[in-house]
Amino acid sequence: MKPTGSLRALGNGICFAAAALFLIAANRPVASAGGALVLDATIALHQVSGRIDHLAVDVARRRLYVAELGNDSVDAIDLATKKATGRIAGLDQPQGLAFLPGKAILTVANAGDGELSFFRAADLWPVGSLALGNEARILVFRPVP
Predict the structure, then answer these.
(1) Could you say which DSSP state residue 93 is in?
(2) How would residue 2 be classed by pLDDT, with cut points 50, 70 and 90?
(3) Does residue 85 come out as left (phi exceeding 0), alpha (psi in the -120 to 50 range) or beta?
(4) At a CB cut-off of 8 Å and minimum separation 6, what does 129 contact?
(5) pTM to 2 decimals?
């Protein structure tokens, strides 16, 4: 049985909250090596239908990016205020996200059209794209030492 509207939204909220907590906790000192994660906050995602996919974090700006596959959009969440601060709409099945801290660029892999899209972190303005072909899904950023 497929989850319907409110169940799917609840599931999305729970998954999002768990991921956000992990990312927030990753930037805090840990009291003990075996400490459990503790719920810090729940952040509502508004006007999201379908499922969410990958996440990326901008540690310097304390911003979390959420790929909203069902909406064809990406939301930027301010982790300090726990609110959405912007949305990139009109994407085509955004799945893979990676944040490039040295350039302050968010990259989005769109599975629908195979485009890798680049957005300025400051204002989510598009700054370029690259055709990767069908089924562009996962991005991994590994800085060169």
Answers:
(1) S
(2) very low
(3) alpha
(4) 115, 116, 117, 118
(5) 0.72
